[in-house]
Write a structure and sequence with these properties.
Length: about 150
């Protein structure tokens, strides 16, 4: 497989991870959070803290493990360098956010960067953390396989 094919495949993996992650996250938001949780939060803690906790757990379950697998796969199986793997998957993620969401919801294409808030930074941090962890694990396996045996 050629280098450009690997790069396009890695970008496609980023798009696929984003699409599946959005679906899984939507199901988690609709099904897994009981109304009693929000009522308890209103009584005992601030509602903002509750949304932050829910967002972190939701992003780990919906996107985190997918980004972990994608980072591992692109580094280990496609033999891309760690930086290239991260950049390609993030490009695919960004393409899905900008173009895919516009096509699905029939809205104009717009860049989501100007609308960054605290929850968006948290979600992007979770995504990046799991992606980098997957790339590091894949790179470590590649390095140990290439090292000569004693």
């Amino acid at each position: 497989m050629g280098r450009y094919s690997k790069l396009l495949l890695a970008i496609g993996i980023g798009i696929l991870v984003s699409a599946v992650g959005v679906i899984v996250t939507g199901y988690l938001a609709a099904i897994a959070i009981p109304k009693a949780f929000f009522l308890w939060l209103q009584e005992h803690l601030s509602l903002d803290l509750g949304f932050v906790l829910i967002t972190i757990v939701q992003q780990i379950l919906g996107f985190g493990f997918l980004f972990l697998a994608a980072g591992y796969f692109t580094t280990k199986r496609l033999c891309l360098s760690p930086i290239i793997s991260v950049l390609c998957i993030l490009i695919g993620f960004w393409l899905y956010l900008v173009v895919g969401v516009a096509l699905v919801y029939e809205t104009p294409i717009s860049n989501p960067i100007p609308t960054l808030n605290t929850l968006v930074f948290i979600t992007l941090g979770v995504h990046l953390l799991f992606l980098v962890l997957g790339v590091v694990l894949g790179n470590r396996d590649n390095t140990t396989m290439r090292s000569p045996s004693a």
